[in-house]
Amino acid sequence: MRTDLKTRTRVAVIGGGQNCEHDVSLASAASVAAALDPEHYEVVPLTIGRDGTWHDRGQRPIGLSGAAQVLRGCDVVFPVVHGPRGEDGALAALCELAGLPYVGSGIRPGALAMDKWATKLVAQAVGLATAPGRLVTRATAAHLAWSHPVVVKPVAAGSSQGVTLVDRPAALRPALDAAFALDDRVLVEDVVTGREIDVAVLRRPDGSLLVPPALEIVVDGLFDYDAKYGGHADFRIPAAVEEADAKALEDAAVTAYEALGCAGVARIDFFLTDAGPVLNEVNTVPGMTEHSQAPRMFAAAGLPYPDLLDELVRGAHR
After folding, report:
1. Residue 88 lies in a domain
2. I need a surface site. Which of 116, 147, 172, 286 has the fewest CB within 10 A?
C-alpha cells in the first residue's frame, strides 16, 4: 500500500458518459471511489450525464467549465468512462490539454483499441491472429449477402451492445440495423470456434508489466450484454489451460498491449483455438468494479483491488 505520501492525493474519479455504457461506467466509478484508501486519497467524484452534462459530487450540473475548475484542483484524474467519448481517448485528450496527470492509456491507444477494425489491422501487423472479417458501411451493407454464420458488431460501441450472432440469412439485416443504430461502421466477422479467454496486463509505476492468471468465460451461446451483466456467465480463474497455451496467451496479450501503446490496465480478449490464440478485442478501460474480470484476475495474482487502484494512481501519466 501507499506509504510515501505526507498528505492525501486528490483523485478525480469520472464516471457515467454519453454512450450506451453509461450505467456500467457508473458502477465502475462508484466502486473505484469507494475502494481508494481514504488514508492516502481524497476522492472527488464527477459524473458525465447521458446528455453530456457534467455533474459534481452532489449531482449538481456544473458543465464542462465547472468540471475544469474541479479538475484543476485535483492531483490525478481517474477516468472510468467506458466506450465512446471516454475510453476512446476523449478524456485522455482533455487531461493532456489541461496538463493533468491521469490514469490509464493515452489518446492514441484509446482510439485505436476502441476501433475494432483498427485493432485488427494493428494485430495482424505484429503477427497476431484475428477472426476473418470485413468492414461494412451503410453504403456497402446493401451488397452484403449471407453465406455462412457470422458475428455482426459495431466497430466502436462497447459492452457487447449491438452484437449479434447471425446463423441464418433472414437474421442478417436486423443484425446490421442493430449495429448501425450504435455506429456508422460495422464489423462482420466469421464465427471463431474456441474457448473465450481474457488476459489482463498492468503497467506498474516502475514500467514493468504484470500479467495475472487468465480468466475463462463459460457461457451458453454468445457472450453478449445480457450474459456479461446478467450473471449468466461463469468466470473461471485461473483458466484451465496447458502451460504452452498459457504462455502463448500471455505473449499475445503483451504484444497487443505494447503494439497499441497501452498504459495502466488493459484487458485483452481471445478465443483459444486448436491453432492458438485469436485476438477478439482490447479494452483499455475494462470493467473496474471489484468483481469485474480484470480486478478478479489481479486478485488471483495476489494484488487485491485497493492495491490495484493504488498501482494505477501511482502509475498515472505525468
Report:
1. yes
2. 147
